[in-house]
Design goal:
Layout lengths: L8 H36 L6 H10 L8 H11 L2 H6 L2 H5 L8 H19 L9 H12 L7 E6 L5 E8 L7 H15 L4 E7 L9 H16 L3 E8 L4 E3 L7
Parallel strand pairs: 3-4
Antiparallel strand pairs: 1-2, 1-3, 4-5
Helix pairs in contact: 2-3, 8-9
Pfam families: RadC (PF04002)
GO biological process, one term: proteolysis
Family: Belongs to the UPF0758 family.
Length: about 250
């Protein structure tokens, strides 16, 4: 029996060339898609973009050359929305095929930079004469945080933020009801504030004032009245919602 014929070197070479050509075509197609997404963004920002395309565009900043359609689809399939993707832990993101080790860190940088921008721009020249405006302010500042913080906003007589008028008090204070009122009132006098608004977040999602929250609010009301200032509201923020003590009849 004659031995099996070996593939000729010319056929092997042609197969390799075909494979290389296919890879190059895919790379060119991916590059073209990236360019089109960026051109659309430059022209009209995210107007007309689907959520999938927004995720793709973000991934082009993190993943060079490779087609990002499938990783974008996989991320949305796993997390359901852009917000949940950006809030996802790095380990969870790395489990998605095509994401790699660098992309999760890049997405966290994008999220934190956007959060910082919103925090710094929130309240500029805005009138805070409604609970809706106050809730919007603190949802931007506190809604995405994963640990509890306490903030104070100092307003002038026109219900506008005083310059550098938002202060984050130190965390881990054992007796906030005793410590915070004095700190808040001293700062209010230094800033010549007329109105005070306090807020804190419940990262657990529990949208209900605790007994300690109520005691602290009453202490702040009494401390403000003693120096002829007014505590306008106490806002509690969760990742998905917020409540106002004033709206709930607790103030």
């Amino acid at each position: 029996m004659s031995p099996p014929k070996r593939q000729s070197s010319s056929k092997s070479s042609r197969a390799g060339e075909a494979s290389a050509g296919f890879d190059a075509a895919n790379a060119n197609s991916g590059a073209g898609h990236r360019s089109r997404l960026r051109a659309r963004f430059e022209k009209s920002k995210f107007l007309g973009f689907s959520e999938h395309e927004i995720v793709e565009l973000l991934l082009t900043l993190c993943i060079p050359r490779t087609d990002v359609k499938q990783p974008a689809k996989a991320l949305l399939a796993k997390y359901g929305s852009l917000r949940r993707i950006l809030d996802a832990p790095a380990d969870g993101l790395r489990e998605v095929s095509g994401i790699g080790s660098v992309t999760p860190i890049a997405l966290q940088i994008i999220r934190e930079a956007a959060t910082l921008y919103l925090q710094e721009s929130a309240g500029e020249n805005e009138l805070f004469d409604s609970t809706e405006a106050l809730i919007n302010l603190f949802r931007i500042r506190l809604g995405a945080l994963r640990h509890e913080v306490f903030e104070v906003a100092y307003l002038d007589k026109s219900y506008r933020l005083i310059h550098d008028g938002i202060e984050r008090l130190e965390e881990g204070v054992a007796d906030r009801t005793r410590v915070y009122p004095g700190k808040v009132m001293r700062a209010a006098l230094q800033k010549n504030a007329v109105f005070i608004v306090v807020a804190h977040n419940h990262p657990t999602g529990r949208l209900k004032a605790s007994p300690e929250d109520k005691r602290l609010t009453q202490s702040l009301v009494e401390a403000a009245q003693a120096i002829q200032l007014t505590l306008l509201d106490h806002v509690i923020v969760t990742p998905d919602s917020a409540m106002s003590f004033l709206d709930e009849g607790l103030l």
